[in-house]
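Rotation project, supervised by the postdoc (A.L.). Task for the rotation student: set up a whole-complex structure prediction and record inputs and outputs verbatim in this book. Inputs entered:
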Amino acid sequence: MKDQGPNKKIFYRGIIRVVIALIALAFVSSLIYETRDEPATINITELAHKITAGEVMKIIVAGDNLKIELKNGEKLVSKKEVEAGLTQTLVNYGVAPEALGGVGIESKEQSGIGFWLSIILPALLPLIFIVAIFWFLIRQAKTGVNQAFTFGRANVHLFGGQKEKTTFADVAGLKEAKKELEEIVDFLKEPKKYTEMGAKIPRGVLLMGPPGTGKTLLARAVAGESGVPFFHISASEFVEMFVGVGASRTRDAFLTAKKAAPSILFIDEIDAVGRERGAGLGGGHDEREQTLNQILVEMDGFDQGTRVIVLAATNRPDVLDAALLRPGRFDRRVVLDLPDIREREEILKIHAKGKPLAKDVDFSRVAARTPGFSGADLANLVNEAAILAVQEKHTEVGQLQLYESIEKVILGPARRSRIVSDKEKEITAYHEAGHALVAAGLKDADPISKVSIIARGQAGGYTINLPLEDRRLVTKSQFLADLAMMLGGYASEKIMFKEITTGASNDLKQASTLARRLVTRYGMSEKMGPLTFGKTEDLIFLGREITTEKNYSEEVAAEIDREVRSFIDNAYRKAVQIVTKNKAALKAIARALIEKEVLEQEEFYAIIKPFKLRGIKA
Ligand code: ADP
Ligand code: MG
Ligand code: ZN
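Outputs recorded:
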């Protein structure tokens, strides 16, 4: 672990440089001002003499101070007696009233301070100037300076005090996770109950689950329920440009939490630092390693009496360092899954609270159409529906707006305004009809729930097929059906127009990716057998697969390519077969699409019913 030495040193060196520059400036300016003649001070007796001698032209009275201008241009200052007026004083000093008559006496209602200020100010000006420059420089450097001061400090945020407390009631579903965390809350509230029983207190709880499943939300709910201080930090904040910062911030965060015990420390997105050590790419890896080590050290440093519980969240438990998961660290693991249909309905209802709903709203049907949606997606969906309702000038959110928002969340907003030529519209219609027809013709494909040729996001049109029920496992047959369906658009274009457009490029990309996965990841190729090929690393900051380390020979690589190709070829053959055998149905779907632009599930199946699809499925 390195300390903060270098950073501090640089900072202090800077300060010293500024101070030296200032001293030099002050010295130079004092030289300049030394040579300027200050008005000499005389006493009141001398003034009286000068008046009598007729040398004085003007006296300016400001409070007790006198500014005297002589006829020869010389300037003097003096002070009169505090109580008496100037004339009175001068008369007392033996000045004849006639002599006084020749002197202009001006009285300025000025305080003594003001007078002196007017004399001192010119001398002060350069100093003020310098101070101003200095202040300006500091302001400029402020961010940097602040950082230098607080570098090793963690930005631990104390939760609570928010206007709206999050509670478990705000979290739908996630029953097991909630139960687990309720225990933790209970322990923090009444530790005695547990210690008397001899029960060991959990140190760390790791929340794991895909993005948007409510990990952060759940942690916030724990904060709301427990009533103890709750510190929140995102692990990505630990990782900075400078090595050593993360470790020192970790120390600081734990210290803060310990001081406030009983308390909860929540480290969000812990995979940012907790990745398997030695697996890093680029320069960040040393730093993460140190930070991770520090977290381990801190957690081991808790003695049995320490009432600090460390909560952490990650969506990549697979990349976490094994050391984090050892007993005494994050020994409790809570898995948050994507919501099932009933949970989706609950989540929708939670987020619809406070929004005026039309009578026709049926959340169970929205839930049925949103398999694979995370809690965050559903929250987003409800919000989009509300926005849509406003735009369409409804007073309530209706079922239609909810349906419309499903596609918006999946594909981006509709672009109805995009003007398409008739030819382009026809091609798009046949393309989508191809997808839909192939899916309908395969018994392993999911049923079509919507076909549309309204552009959305990047897509010129889209076909949505959804599983009847949530599925966790996907079979090889399902994958093969998906592959064929992906190529249905391409097949249809080629057969109908003897020509291919760019519209199919995304389909091809998806199909290629899927086919390669079947071979290299899922062991679904007969020839390659139950092996995985290639080791993928994730680039930390993007969280995406970036590099694929080839851990196989060139021959194997060629074999993989052949297998991928054969998957694609077979799928394409199937698609072509279905399209050619059912051209009449294809044409009917395309015509309906050109006319209506959107076909819902019932409409679609009504159109193809009379054709009795020939091929694979009745
Ligand atoms: P992550 O797991 O990525 O940390 P978040 O906790 O940030 O996900 O969830 C994002 C948003 O999604 C939450 O603020 C909430 O609005 C919504 N959400 C996710 N899961 C649920 C849930 N189970 N119940 C209610 N809302 C949820
Ligand atoms: Mg989160
Ligand atoms: Zn397509």
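Student's summary: The first strand starts at residue 40 and ends at 41.
Supervisor addendum: The chain has five domains: 4-36+114-149, 40-109, 157-335, 341-411, 422-611.
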